[in-house]
Specification:
- The chain has 153 residues and is of the alpha/beta class.
- The protein has a single domain (2-13, 30-70, 95-152), classed as Tetrahydropterin Synthase, Chain A, CATH 3.30.479.
- The protein has three helices and six strands.
- Strands 4-3-1-2-5-6 form a six-stranded mixed β-sheet, with helices on both faces.
- Helix 1 packs antiparallel against helix 3 (101-120).
- The radius of gyration is 17 Å and the shape is elongated.
- The termini are close together.
Amino acid sequence: MYTCSKRFEGFPCCHRQPNHPGHCRFVHGYNRSFTCWFAAGKLDGTGFVVDFSGLKQLRAQLTEQFDHTFLANANDPLLGEWQRLHELGALDLRVMANVGMEGSARWVWERANELLLERDGGRSWCWKVEARENSSNAACWEARPSWASEKTA
């Protein structure tokens, strides 16, 4: 199996973890980055696992979700307040199942695989995403998408 990786950087956003007993329950922010690992059993016509120039749509989705946005968990008890502040133009709200690095890594993995399935028809896939909040802390989501058959490996 062939593999490669691509790093996406420069996504300043903030969030909070409302159920955390410590300081993570307060609004705080990071300049997030994401590294995606791709795999394919056979290379494309130009000899690539994934043509990085074809990932502009993924970069646009990351920008829309994470660039100068406020991320709120869907179960945040203050969600109504965040929505009100969004409507007032005080923040650019994005609601997620899990705003932490773990949830963000999975969100990016899902978007990357939606794009690759549509574009490559299952020839290539994203098997791992690392979401990094700073140089010390990161979380990963790793899985093989259900549509990536053994025939493509």
